[in-house]
């Protein structure tokens, strides 16, 4: 066998191996797509959280059904520098803070006078929140989304 025939056989074998590798890789991707039903995972890997206003007082600036998105941190209280200003005599100036750490939502009571309630229980310090948890601050109620 001459050198040119040997190189043609080696090149042909390498080409067939490469072709089969591409086909197997494409079949794996298609199989994974079929198993997941075509759904894609979010590219950022971050969960999105929000608060839905469920109950308010008459003189508040919030409306029932309003959704407040939570990106990193949201503060709630009577003072104007808060992210969400609650016009309520039962709400402290800096009442509570919602924070996201490692894709987990927490609420922290900021030593408020009348307290922060999660699912009708008064909290102290940081508490982990879950979807559909109820939060009550003064006479305003929220639902975690």
From TrEMBL:
Protein name: FHA domain-containing protein FhaB
Domain of life assignment: Bacteria
InterPro entries: Cell_Proc_Reg/RNA_Proc, FHA_dom, SMAD_FHA_dom_sf
SMART domains: FHA
Keywords for the protein's UniProt record, in alphabetical order: Membrane, Transmembrane, Transmembrane helix
PANTHER family: NUCLEAR INHIBITOR OF PROTEIN PHOSPHATASE-1
Spans through the membrane: 6-27
Lineage: Bacteria, Bacillati, Bacillota, Clostridia, Eubacteriales
Keyword Membrane annotated: yes
Start and end residues of each FHA domain: 74-123
